[in-house]
From TrEMBL:
Keywords on record: Repeat
Gene3D superfamilies: Tetratricopeptide repeat domain
Family membership: Belongs to the PPR family. P subfamily.
Protein name: Pentacotripeptide-repeat region of PRORP domain-containing protein
Transmembrane helix is among the record's keywords: no
InterPro entries named in the record: PPR_P_subfamily, PPR_rpt, TPR-like_helical_dom_sf
Gene source species: Hevea brasiliensis
Start-end of each PPR repeat: 151-185, 186-220, 221-255, 256-290, 291-325, 326-356, 360-394, 395-429, 430-461
Length: 461
């Protein structure tokens, strides 16, 4: 199998071009790897002090705690085995301390401890997570050179690294080479490829891969189906997604909350909220608890349909089920009140959000827009002025919404003042902002001023 691995790595060179010289400035090339291959004892005296125990359990409060345990344990004799170091390194990977892991691998090597397949796979994963998949492949080359046998996890890690960098064709080629080289991909390998294909718009290819999984002796799981159903729903192919959902259940694969969220979002996007509510009831029948994301999908879509009372009813049910609304939930509900011109209810909800400390820039934007649409420009002005006194910084949407409201309310002077203050505060006007100002100036007959602004727009690009 080592010969197969060497052939796969050589084949990978067809699509993968190293750029090591460019990346040398980011991380030093791991040339010191594999220099010492003296095994530490696999059976070691178990120290009883707290730092050593934390190292062996690989449970740390933070990265500083982990490093303190590491620095302590390397002074012990005999040293921990490579398996114990791997558990420690995995804990750091869980903290996303990829640079730290790469650095500590050097320290471990300097102690005379040889790498294992698992430790090298961890190292490859760190390079891939840092978008340095080139270095991941360089470790693969050393892997083969020293006679170590890569496994499915090793290849899956490299495939995932290519997918992270958007090199989907390269990932597919490596996957095919892996299979032809006699390595059996597992469900995680397939999920990495399927997810990448779906995100890159190649859902049909992902479906073909799904169909071929059983023939290759690997059954798909709920993660595989979720990736494809999500892609189909985003493409508004709801019937196809529901057919795949039925196929999944016929195979006795239990759906997850993510499954239902994908379907509910897709169905809501088509305005079929009754079907979405039916899926919500089905979730309850399956003893699957809805998440905050489920709640937000339903609330947002019901509010956009003007069904605010139904949205409120669902929110109460969700709260009873232990799902706590967040700022997205409240913003959607407030937007619903504004769309239905229930400004008193919107204001009341906004005040609750402010007192609860969860109002964000989107919350202000929604209420300012609601006031402007309902021709309550004085309330919009008051809220905008209050916003300037808070820690919530107005963005381009805030200014554009308010400027448009002022123009429509017949206050062009105020609109231009806000526009000037927007620029002075470093907020970049967008096309809608400029269009609003130009439209207002032209309607006023200020063509020279409009032309000057238009030329300024051209310079900005």
């Amino acid at each position: 199998m080592i010969m197969s691995a060497r052939r796969i790595f050589t084949s990978a060179g067809r699509f993968f071009h190293f750029q090591l010289q460019t990346e040398m400035g980011i991380i030093q090339f791991p040339s010191l790897l594999f220099t010492n291959y003296f095994h530490s004892s696999t059976s070691m005296h178990v120290p009883e002090d707290a730092k050593s125990q934390r190292f062996l359990r690989s449970k740390f409060k933070d990265v500083d705690d982990a490093l303190a345990s590491f620095n302590h344990i390397i002074l012990m004799r005999p040293l921990p085995s490579i398996a114990q170091f791997c558990r420690f390194l995995s804990a750091l990977v869980g903290m996303k301390q990829y640079h730290t892991v790469i650095s500590l691998c050097r320290t471990i090597e300097s102690l005379g401890i040889s790498h294992s397949v698992y430790s090298l796979s961890i190292l490859i994963n760190c390079f891939c997570r840092l978008h340095l998949v080139n270095f991941g492949f360089s470790i693969m080359g050393k892997f083969i050179k020293f006679g170590l046998e890569p496994n499915t996890v090793t290849f899956t890690t490299l495939i995932n690294g290519l997918c992270i960098d958007g090199k989907i064709n390269g990932a597919v080629d490596l996957f095919n080479d892996m299979v032809s080289g006699g390595y059996q991909p597992n469900v995680h390998t397939y999920n990495v490829i399927v997810n990448a294909l779906c995100k890159s718009g190649k859902t049909n290819v992902a479906i073909k891969l799904l169909k071929g999984m059983g023939e290759r002796g690997c059954e798909p799981d709920v993660v595989t189906y979720n990736a494809i159903m999500d892609a189909l729903c985003k493409d508004k192919l709801i019937i196809e997604a529901l057919n795949l959902f039925s196929q999944m259940r016929n195979k006795c694969i239990s759906p997850s909350v993510i499954t239902y969220n994908c379907l509910i979002q897709g169905i809501c996007n088509l305005g079929k909220w009754n079907q979405a509510l039916a899926l919500l009831k089905e979730m309850a029948g399956q003893n699957i608890s809805p998440s905050i994301f489920t709640l937000n999908i339903l609330i947002d879509n019901l509010c956009k349909e003007g069904l605010v009372s139904k949205a409120q009813a669902i929110m109460k049910i969700m709260i009873q089920k232990g799902v706590k609304p967040d700022v997205v939930t409240y913003n959607s509900l407030m937007d619903g009140f504004c769309l239905c011109n229930q400004m008193d209810e919107a204001t009341k909800l906004f005040d609750q959000m402010v007192s609860g400390g969860i109002a964000n820039v989107c919350s202000y934007n929604i209420l300012i827009n609601g006031y402007c649409k309902s021709r309550k420009i004085d309330e919009a002005t008051k809220l905008f002025d209050e916003m300037l006194k808070t820690s919530v910084v107005p963005n381009t949407v805030t200014y554009t919404t308010f400027i448009k409201g002022l123009w429509e309310a017949g206050r062009p002077g105020n609109a231009l003042e806000v526009f000037k203050s927007m620029c002075s505060y470093g907020q970049q006007p967008n096309v809608i902002t400029f269009s609003t100002i130009l439209n207002g100036l032209c309607k006023q007959g200020n063509l020279d001023e409009a032309l000057t602004l238009f030329k300024a727009m051209e310079k900005v690009g």
